[in-house]
């Protein structure tokens, strides 16, 4: 090793490199650098002992602290569940009417229900649960499959036309497309159906008389929608006399529904949401509307 | 102590090689064990492969850059598990080449989207997201419903997947194109062998609601409806955790 000579000014050695008479000082590494190097090495060794670190072919050193993201998650989920237990236990064990009568519990239902609803239901039924074309309004007490808490909870569990083995199944036939009714009959039934929710129409001289559609309605529609068009929650047949329309209540929409038929779809939530979460959601949506009278 | 170093740093090539060796040791110790440590990838013996239609949908998902705004990775964090479901396991991406975990969520995570909403909802949402989610900033993908799906080369896609380890059989590769049509056209003659080849749970539906043609919309919706449903491996550890 050809080190140079000692530099008279600083007392340090030179490296032996020389460029036109200029030499390079070989100043020793400052002490703090060695200190930090030693400190970080020490930290690393302690970390190896405490935390998961070294691979051992098919396994690895687990560390003395037993740290694991998955266990930490499990623990935080348990802690959260325990913190909520004060009210979740009561919601789980008590029946719907008792919970609905308890303002404190209903406040918890509203708080947690809003999050559940936004995460799972809002994309179809809307952020305010007022529905949209093809998706029922949940605030109007107009329930396809019954508005009692038990019925709503069951719809949530199994879904509608969802493929769940116990799913609620229902279909509006394509009366026009499948040629069960002539176009003229579809027109007439459309007028009749419109008049069900607008009694004033029958007196309006400009529109065709709704009576023309009565016969076709009686032969084709009342088996599901009932004699007076009030619907049937056992079959998921909507009430035609109220002001809630899933696919629109204007003439064209009603005509399309009768001509092409409809088949809605509500997913089954049994695999995705726990019984408690479904109960909270049931209470939450019932709380949004006027509720069963 | 510095003797070797003095020699080494005067030799450019030798010093460069030494840097590579030292960095290589770090890489080896960090990466190589992932192939030998048992816990890296979990077991999922009943996991099924993507059907050709779903694979085509996946290719469209990649082509349209969906991964830039949607992740497919639920992390081990309480808020994510409570919102999206059980955290993602490595094995769930076993047949994903390339994986689409993503690193940015402008939209929500969709690792467990399959079955959450109806086909009609997906079509309406892809046509114009604002129709169903007023506050959405997602672009419209209505043109997917007008584009006929290119299905005649899907056998080659399956073959490429097999080359990187996805267990497609010769029969699957040979029937890829007809299986594609079969899955999106229920009651057609093409559907016959599909569930035999890919399992009884394979969904055969007219995904885009327009009968008689198979569009890119069919493929993308078929893919979105299978997300998180190739295996239920993720549900066992979490079920244990909730006890």
TrEMBL record, chain A:
Its cofactor is heme c. Heme c 2 binds at residues 172, 221, 224-225. Residues 108-197, 208-289 form the Cytochrome c domain. The chain crosses the membrane at residues 33-50. Heme c 1 binds at residues 121, 124-125, 266. Pathway: Energy metabolism; oxidative phosphorylation. The keyword Repeat applies. GO terms for cellular component: plasma membrane. Binds 2 heme C groups per subunit. Pfam families: Cytochrom_C, Cytochrome_CBB3, FixP_N. It is found in: Cell inner membrane. Its main location: membrane. Coiled coil: none annotated. GO terms for molecular function: electron transfer activity; heme binding; metal ion binding; oxidoreductase activity. One of its GO terms (biological process) is oxidative phosphorylation. It comes from the Bacteria. Keywords: Cell inner membrane, Cell membrane, Electron transport, Heme, Hydrogen ion transport, Ion transport, Iron, Membrane, Metal-binding, Oxidoreductase, Repeat, Respiratory chain, Transmembrane, Transmembrane helix, Transport. Component of the cbb3-type cytochrome c oxidase. C-type cytochrome. Part of the cbb3-type cytochrome c oxidase complex. Belongs to the CcoP / FixP family. This is Cbb3-type cytochrome c oxidase subunit.
Automatic annotation (TrEMBL), chain B:
One of its GO terms (molecular function) is heme binding. It holds the Pfam family FixO. Residues 52-184 form the Cytochrome c domain. Its EC number is 1.9.3.1. SUPFAM superfamilies: Cytochrome c. Keywords: Heme, Iron, Membrane, Metal-binding, Oxidoreductase, Transmembrane, Transmembrane helix. Gene3D superfamilies: 6.10.250.2250, Cytochrome c-like domain. NCBIfam families: ccoO, PRK14487.1. This is Cytochrome-c oxidase, cbb3-type subunit II.
């Amino acid at each position: 090793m050809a080190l140079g000579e000692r530099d008279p000014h600083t007392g340090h050695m030179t490296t032996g490199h020389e460029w036109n008479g200029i030499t390079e000082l070989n100043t020793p590494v400052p002490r703090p650098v060695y200190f930090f190097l030693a400190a970080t090495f020490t930290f690393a060794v302690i970390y190896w002992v405490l935390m998961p670190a070294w691979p051992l072919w098919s396994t690895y050193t687990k560390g003395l602290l037993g740290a694991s993201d998955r266990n930490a998650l499990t623990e935080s989920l348990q802690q959260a569940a325990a913190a909520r237990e004060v009210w979740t236990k009561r919601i789980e064990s008590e029946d719907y009417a008792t919970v609905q009568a308890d303002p404190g519990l209903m406040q918890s239902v509203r708080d947690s229900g809003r999050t559940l609803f936004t995460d799972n239901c809002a994309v179809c039924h809307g952020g305010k649960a007022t529905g949209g074309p093809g998706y029922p309004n949940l605030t109007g007490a107009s329930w396809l499959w019954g508005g009692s808490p038990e019925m709503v909870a069951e719809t949530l569990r199994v879904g509608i036309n969802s493929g769940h083995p116990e799913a609620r199944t229902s279909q509006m036939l394509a009366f026009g497309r499948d040629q069960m009714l002539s176009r003229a009959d579809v027109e007439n039934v459309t007028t009749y159906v419109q008049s069900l929710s607008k009694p004033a129409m029958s007196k309006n001289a400009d529109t065709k008389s709704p009576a023309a559609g009565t016969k076709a309605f009686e032969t084709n529609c009342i088996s599901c929608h009932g004699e007076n068009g009030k619907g049937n929650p056992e079959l998921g047949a909507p009430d035609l006399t109220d002001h809630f329309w899933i696919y629109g209540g204007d003439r064209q929409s009603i005509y399309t529904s009768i001509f092409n038929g409809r088949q809605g779809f509500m997913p089954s939530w049994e695999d995705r949401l726990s019984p408690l979460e479904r109960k909270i959601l049931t209470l939450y949506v019932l709380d949004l509307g006027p509720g069963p009278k | 102590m510095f003797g070797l170093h003095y020699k080494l740093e005067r030799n450019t090539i030798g010093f460069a090689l030494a840097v590579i060796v030292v960095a290589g040791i770090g890489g080896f110790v960090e990466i190589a064990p992932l192939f030998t440590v048992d816990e890296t990838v979990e077991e999922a013996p009943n996991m099924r492969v993507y059907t050709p239609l779903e694979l085509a949908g996946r290719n469209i998902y990649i082509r349209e850059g969906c991964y830039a705004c949607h992740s497919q990775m639920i992390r081990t964090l309480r808020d994510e598990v409570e919102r999206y479901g059980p955290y993602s396991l490595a094995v769930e991406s076993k047949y994903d080449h390339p994986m689409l975990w993503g690193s940015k969520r402008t939209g929500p995570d969709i690792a467990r989207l399959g079955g959450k909403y109806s086909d009609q909802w997906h079509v309406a949402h892809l046509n114009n997201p604002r129709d169903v989610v007023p506050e959405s900033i997602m672009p419209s993908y209505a043109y997917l419903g007008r584009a006929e799906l290119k299905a005649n080369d899907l056998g080659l896609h399956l073959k490429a997947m097999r080359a990187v380890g996805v267990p497609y059989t010769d029969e699957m590769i040979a029937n890829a194109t007809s299986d594609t049509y079969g899955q999106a056209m229920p009651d057609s003659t093409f559907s016959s062998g599909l569930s035999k080849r890919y399992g009884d749970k394979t969904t055969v539906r007219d995904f885009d609601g327009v009968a008689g043609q198979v569009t890119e919309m069919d493929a993308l919706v078929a893919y979105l409806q299978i997300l998180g449903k190739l295996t239920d491996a993720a549900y066992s550890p979490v079920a244990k955790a909730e006890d």
